[in-house]
Design a protein that fits this description.
39% helix, 9-stranded mixed sheet, 434 residues, single chain, alpha/beta, 14 helices
């Protein structure tokens, strides 16, 4: 049996000072240090924060090798961003690129306290088997939990996309990894493709929806309806589906999303970076839409994303009261909730029966800290300098005093090989411009 001692436990609802946590794969017991019964392996938290590992609700592992990439880039709208950067990049990704993207992503997520990743994947040179490539690297070798899908799109071989999603869904469902059915976005999916998916698959989907006005205008001009209405027409607004962005949706569409018990993944840093606008959280809240937190593949720092969400929604709502600490807590809680449903485990609390996905985050409070103000310390202090020292997933220590304990290769060797892989990828991409 393992233990964390001298812990200031915070799980976004509860705060306990100077506690112990007994755990193996699941949390067995928590209590005051005065009653600590001892354990075979002990980690001393030194009165720092111990929190549940973070869950990222929408990301793109395949974006890893975009860092430092230089391509001719002069977009005037969002579709130009796709055409000039992302669709060029993902078209050249194969098994090796996918594998090292996931290894590097896993290490970077650990450094940032992320222990469960909901990923939305695309790779033109490896469709079949791509999700198992990600699973092998991120889950089997690095040790994180992952929920994967392949973004079906008319840009690719649609039959291969569909089969890759269905095969992964049918063959892989453990407490460490699971599948969703992925679709790219309305603007890259024909009626024929949506109809085929609707007939072959009846579960939840993971899709970009109304991220930019381009997606809406494309749907209106080609099909005479808005994006959410179009998904609803084909019966694809299924319970526990993840709709990423929803920046350009109407209240009627939000009602449909709420009625069908779907989640909206908010990705405000990406929205600002792409200048597509910001989601209207107040309208989502009005219609009881469940929001979760993603980053759309823009880096690995979820703490930054939480702060950007907190501040940008106040600006969007034109009031310092437009997005409260409770609103942020609601989105965080929903992210744990959907991941728990898909993996069929209990995430997000430090209580007996919950899985042992835990992080220790050093923090020296400059002002008194108590149950009443601990959350304020986290948002205005801890998240501002968020550097976990220890990360535990499924009871296994993945980072020990800032040192990654990758079970396969030395971290430096992984990064060294990743640089070689990315260099070859970039050279391959640059050939198109010579």
């Amino acid at each position: 049996m393992k233990a964390i001692i001298n812990a200031n436990i915070f799980d976004f609802d509860n705060f306990y000072k100077n506690y112990y946590i007994l755990f193996d794969k699941k949390i067995i017991e928590i209590g005051s240090m005065e009653k600590f019964p001892g354990a075979s392996h002990v980690i001393d938290a030194h009165e720092n924060f111990v929190m549940p590992g973070l869950v990222i609700g929408h990301t793109h592992i395949y974006s890893t090798f975009a860092r430092g990439l230089s391509l001719p880039f002069n977009p005037i709208n969002f579709k130009d961003i796709l055409n000039q950067l992302w669709w060029k990049l993902d078209s050249k990704l194969g098994k090796t690129e996918n594998y090292f993207s996931a290894l590097v992503s896993g290490i970077e997520f650990i450094k940032n306290g992320v222990t469960t990743v909901i990923d939305h994947h695309a790779s033109g040179k490896q469709i079949k088997g791509s999700l198992n490539t990600l699973r092998k690297a991120l889950c089997d070798e690095i040790g994180l939990r992952g929920i994967f899908c392949f973004e079906t799109s008319d840009r690719f071989n649609v039959e291969e996309c569909i089969q890759e999603n269905l095969l992964f869904l049918n063959e892989n469902n453990t407490d460490m990894y699971a599948g969703l059915f992925g679709l790219h976005a309305s603007l890259s999916l024909s009626d024929e493709t949506l109809k085929k998916i609707s007939e072959l698959y009846k579960g939840p989907i993971h899709v970009h929806a109304a991220e930019s006005i381009d997606d809406v205008e494309d749907s209106l001009s080609k099909y005479g309806m808005r994006v959410i209405n179009r998904l609803n027409k084909f019966g694809l607004l299924r319970e526990n589906s993840i709709l990423a962005h929803c920046v350009h949706v109407t209240e009627e569409e939000l009602k449909l999303i709420s009625q069908n018990n779907c989640y909206i993944a908010l990705n405000v840093s990406s929205n600002m970076n792409n200048a597509v606008g910001l989601p209207d959280y107040q309208k989502m809240k009005k219609h009881n839409v469940k929001t979760i937190v993603g980053n759309d593949g823009l880096g690995f720092n979820l703490a930054r994303e939480l702060l950007n969400l907190f501040f940008s929604m106040k600006l969007k709502g034109k009031s310092p009261l437009a997005f409260s600490l409770d609103d942020l807590r609601y989105s965080i809680s929903n992210t744990y909730e959907i991941a728990s449903k898909l993996l069929k485990i209990k995430l997000g609390k430090i209580q007996p029966g919950y899985v042992s996905d835990l992080i220790i985050v050093p923090y020296i409070p400059p002002t008194p800290i108590s149950k009443e103000n601990a959350y304020g310390h986290v948002v205005f202090g801890l998240l501002d300098n968020f550097r976990p020292s220890h990360v535990i997933v499924n009871g296994k220590l993945l980072m020990d005093n800032y040192k990654i304990t990758v079970p396969t290769d030395d971290v430096n060797e992984i990064y060294k090989e990743a640089r070689k892989v990315s260099q070859r990828l970039w050279e391959n991409l640059s050939k198109n411009y010579k």
